[in-house]
């Protein structure tokens, strides 16, 4: 089972518009971050995408991805869904729409804002067949588990995918750690976790919270993601133990 980190940046990416790198070294390629998204792949070739970031087209090209079995959304914030139209080329040549899943609230909001994606329009076919997660347990050979995580006034969905004897957890955009999260990510092989910055943030995990989730869940390995321009790759990686890696765009790991 393979994890691909398609993007690991915060909502403005790194650098921010204006070529603002903050304290990140602009000469380190791993500091150039697009908005967060991952793909997980099984040995049989099935592939799931989590979130459609505004940088989706560039991410698909950079990672040579031209087929998907499904998209799972964490929530409807712009940096997690506004690249949804870039799913259109992935629909070309398919017999039917791409499967898509999210929480009831995420599905409601996505339908409200991107109706044409889920219902077709003016002769164009439906791009995504969108469903609520409901009691979903399996899809395309992956075992799927999930829980809702506090993200300020809303919730973000955390996911755990298992296939081929491996497990990958994805916990982006959370501001507090719950018992449900610890249960979901218990002993996961790889945990990708929100880690916006060092200082506390009202809706995102800072470094201390990210490290706490990794420790309390018993994750075997972890990747820090959703990083802003105060999180220099080399500086942060030098502080981490061997089982915790600072994410970067294009990172690939086997679970």
TrEMBL record:
<dbReference type="InterPro" id="IPR036866">
    <property type="entry name" value="RibonucZ/Hydroxyglut_hydro"/>
</dbReference>
<keyword id="KW-0378">Hydrolase</keyword>
<protein>
    <submittedName>
        <fullName>Phosphoribosyl 1,2-cyclic phosphodiesterase</fullName>
        <ecNumber>3.1.4.55</ecNumber>
    </submittedName>
</protein>
<dbReference type="InterPro" id="IPR001279">
    <property type="entry name" value="Metallo-B-lactamas"/>
</dbReference>
<dbReference type="Pfam" id="PF12706">
    <property type="entry name" value="Lactamase_B_2"/>
</dbReference>
<dbReference type="GO" id="GO:0103043">
    <property type="term" value="F:phosphoribosyl 1,2-cyclic phosphate phosphodiesterase activity"/>
</dbReference>
<feature type="domain" description="Metallo-beta-lactamase">
    <location>
        <begin position="34"/>
        <end position="226"/>
    </location>
</feature>
């Amino acid at each position: 089972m393979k994890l691909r980190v398609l993007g690991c940046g915060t909502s403005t990416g790194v650098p921010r518009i204006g070529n603002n790198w903050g304290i990140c070294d602009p000469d380190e390629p791993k500091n150039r971050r697009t908005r967060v998204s991952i793909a997980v792949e099984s040995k049989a070739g099935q592939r799931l995408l989590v979130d459609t970031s505004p940088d989706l087209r560039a991410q698909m090209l950079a990672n040579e991805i031209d087929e998907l079995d499904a998209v799972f959304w964490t929530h409807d914030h712009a940096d997690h869904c506004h690249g949804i139209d870039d799913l259109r080329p992935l629909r070309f040549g398919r017999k039917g729409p791409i499967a898509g899943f999210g929480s009831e609230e995420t599905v409601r909001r996505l339908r409200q804002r991107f109706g044409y994606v889920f219902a077709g329009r003016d002769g164009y076919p439906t791009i995504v067949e969108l469903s609520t997660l409901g009691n979903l347990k399996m899809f395309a050979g992956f075992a799927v588990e999930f829980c809702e995580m506090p993200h300020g006034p809303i919730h973000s969905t955390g996911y755990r995918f298992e296939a081929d004897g491996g497990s990958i957890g994805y916990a982006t955009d959370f501001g507090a750690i719950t018992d449900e999260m610890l249960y979901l990510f218990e002993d996961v092989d790889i945990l990708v976790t929100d880690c916006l910055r060092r200082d506390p943030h009202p809706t995102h995990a800072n470094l201390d919270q990210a490290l706490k989730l990794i420790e309390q869940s018993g994750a075997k390995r972890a990747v820090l993601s959703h990083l802003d321009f105060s999180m220099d790759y080399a500086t942060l990686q030098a502080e981490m133990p061997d089982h915790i890696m600072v994410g970067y765009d294009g990172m690939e790991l086997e679970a």
